[in-house]
Amino acid sequence: MIRTVKKGGTAADASGTTRRRRRRRAVQYLLVFLGGVLVVDALVGDNGLVQIMKKRDEQRALQQTLIRARSENARLREEARRLKEDPAAIEEIARRELGLIKPGEKLFIIRDVGPADADRRR
C-alpha cells in the first residue's frame, strides 16, 4: 500500500516539523557556542596562543642572558689563565688598579687646564 502526503498536511505534521526545526536550530546554536568557547580558550587559555607567545619571548630573553653569561665566563677564564701564567698581566693590573710603581720610577700627574683657568694665568 502506498501513501501519499498532501502538501497542506495536518496540524500534527506541522507541529512535528516545527519541533524538529527548533531542535535542529538549538543544536546549531549550541555547536556554534561550543566552537566559540574552544576558539577563545585556544587563544587566551592556560596553554593558548597568547601564553605560547609570552613563553617564546621569555625563552629568547633567557637565551640572550645565557649567551652573555657564557661570554663573561670565557673572558674571566682567559683573565684567570693570564694571571696564572703571565707576570706582565699581574704587573699591569697592579699598576692600573692599585696605582703601584716600580722602585726608581717617578709618577707625574698632569692636569688639564680649563679655559677659565687659562684666562686667569695671563
Query: How is the quaternary structure best described?
Result: single chain
Q: Roughly what fraction of the amino acids lie in strands?
A: under 5%
Radius of gyration: 43 Å
Overall average residue pLDDT = 85
List low-pLDDT spans.
Answer: none
**Total beta strand runs:** 0
Task: Describe the protein in words.
This protein is mostly helical. It has a domain at 45-121. The chain is built from 4 helices and no strands. It has helices spanning 11-44, 49-85, 87-98, 115-121. It is rod-shaped.
Task: Furnish the topology, listing elements before pairings.
Blueprint: H1 11-44, H2 49-85, H3 87-98, H4 115-121
Tag the structure with descriptive keywords.
single chain; mainly alpha
Short description:
The protein has helices at 11-44, 49-85, 87-98, 115-121. It has 122 residues and is mostly helical. Helix 2 packs across helix 3 (87-98).
